[in-house]
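F-box only protein 11
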Amino acid sequence: MVAEESGPGAQNSPYQLRRKTLLPKRTACPTKSNMEGASTSTTENFGHRAKRARVSGKSQDLSAAPAEQYLQEKLPDEVVLKIFSYLLEQDLCRAACVCKRFSELANDPILWKRLYMEVFEYTRPMMHPEPGKFYQINPEEYEHPNPWKESFQQLYKGAHVKPGFAEHFYSNPARYKGRENMLYYDTIEDALGGVQEAHFDGLIFVHSGIYTDEWIYIESPITMIGAAPGKVADKVIIENTRDSTFVFMEGSEDAYVGYMTIRFNPDDKSAQHHNAHHCLEITVNCSPIIDHCIIRSTCTVGSAVCVSGQGACPTIKHCNISDCENVGLYITDHAQGIYEDNEISNNALAGIWVKNHGNPIIRRNHIHHGRDVGVFTFDHGMGYFESCNIHRNRIAGFEVKAYANPTVVRCEIHHGQTGGIYVHEKGRGQFIENKIYANNFAGVWITSNSDPTIRGNSIFNGNQGGVYIFGDGRGLIEGNDIYGNALAGIQIRTNSCPIVRHNKIHDGQHGGIYVHEKGQGVIEENEVYSNTLAGVWVTTGSTPVLRRNRIHSGKQVGVYFYDNGHGVLEDNDIYNHMYSGVQIRTGSNPKIRRNKIWGGQNGGILVYNSGLGCIEDNEIFDNAMAGVWIKTDSNPTLRRNKIHDGRDGGICIFNGGRGLLEENDIFRNAQAGVLISTNSHPVLRKNRIFDGFAAGIEITNHATATLEGNQIFNNRFGGLFLASGVNVTMKDNKIMNNQDAIEKAVSRGQCLYKISSYTSYPMHDFYRCHTCNTTDRNAICVNCIKKCHQGHDVEFIRHDRFFCDCGAGTLSNPCTLAGEPTHDTDTLYDSAPPIESNTLQHN
């Protein structure tokens, strides 16, 4: 009999739930028939239980002996429970077979908790419902009434490694009567030897203690689990200072090791003879389960866990692989396996290495604060990584190199001290639906002929760029949400040529897409919007193809070609930018075709500072300033464009601008259809310029032009206006059916301000009045000179663009022709210039 005080926990509360479990029968051990079915006591200890209702002393069916009747019916519950507390599990199960009352009392959880903790030490029941599966429960939350008894039943066949206890156990057979079939060993090696000699079925409980330098080579499907109170793995420590702590070999395919600390702690931590030694070594053709273990290695040469060879396919779950002085988990040479819910942190090298066709499945791991990279796949390494949290590693969160091809799905990769994902030296991989954010460098780096798939990810709030492709990088960048990064959302440079499509690139603190230093790529069907700088930059010899993108609502330019940026811009919607929709400058020569460029708060297309470009078949409309600006020695070609409904002019060419304008339709613009100024010399051929709200073509400020075969009709002010001193070359133009509002106003004696107000600049003769002290910035129309300034000292200046300051009410004498003054500012002779991007802001 076991004294009550020999086991802990007799004073603890009983529990209210019940569960039935089936296990194979074993000689001299508790069985289903004699261990189930008792009800649970409901009081705190034996001395304070609710009294059982007394039954009648009269037997209705069978007459019982007085002593038997007293024991079974009249002895108080607390006395029976006190007696039962001296029984071991075998006798307690036999007592439960006596009668219903004994069955109920013998199933009391407090009795079984005391017995359970005496044998197994666990302070919470360790359930073992099936091979390879162990988990601890909170008894209060369990669905059945006596989890202690149920767990006892499931674990009963195990042998125990409990140093110093075996001699005591075997030398006191009377004390442990009924436990003759339990086996106790002093060392793990002895227990493994017992398995080999078939002394028991292979379930080994390793009790509290530190087990040092045991030779643990596992070649059979044994189950080894730590047994200790509290946090079990902290109390059961197995370490080696000379050899790998655990080695799983062929034949251990169904082995289980769990709930213990496994350490490799060599005396000489850097010596080369430790190169092949690890905490856990899993070799060919074995698939053990490693569960709830703490794994530590202080050796600077070998990894903490090494899984190597064809058929190596372990399950490692709920383990802590941290603070190791080399790699945490190393999977190589065609090894596979399932690695789930592990904590991998603060390792000196990578948290995980996958190499040489290793192909693991890695799910829900927490990989963080590594002193190197988080996960490193290289030399044809593969793997499926799902729902992992990878963060705060010193180098990249995930690195792919040298033909490695992992699949990374729904992971979070964030707060890396360098980048998030780094794919280089012909790396590949699929990165799908991950969250990549708050990394110090780019969220994704792709370089040196690598070709990954980056798909459906959120890449945001990086301290540099979102995706950075350089050094001949490639890749498919598709369906990602890229936003809030400090530099460009996507950067393509140095001969890289990715496919970028279906992404949202927005709200960046810099630009959207930046293609430079001979970058290439196909960029299609993306939405690029609300970025602080240009939506797309193309510069320094780059030649991307941008197709069917929506580029809008930027705080500067939509698409910006500069410093010999080239490429194709076609079938895009470019709208609602603070600056021009497209800017081309400094030797850039893109092909811009079939785009819609509209709604800008500045111009549509600005070509300046020796910009070129072939601009064909675009629709350019509803921009706040000119649809197309050409200036400062630029020489683009514009063909078959529709430039209409602008809130300023159609095309404005000035400051030495040139260009070929051919077969364009220019209509319904608020200012001149084409304005040519300040030493510019374009060629206009076969254009139709019509239905404008001002002039058709105006040429001023010493500009010239070649006009051939153009049709200019139904414009409000008139068809063609040439300022003083302007000479043009004209051939086969048709100037017809214009409304000629200026000539009509002059002939009717009206002030020209009446038809222009201060928003338009009709071209006619203008004068100054010395009597009224007008300045070089003032102009007066011919009718106001005749009427309002009659008899004054006046001077003819020239035939040019202006509005009448007399009609505008800016002179001292009121205009007698125009009506109420508008108090406008001085006349400006050209349309307001567009806002140019400042390259210095972009570098």
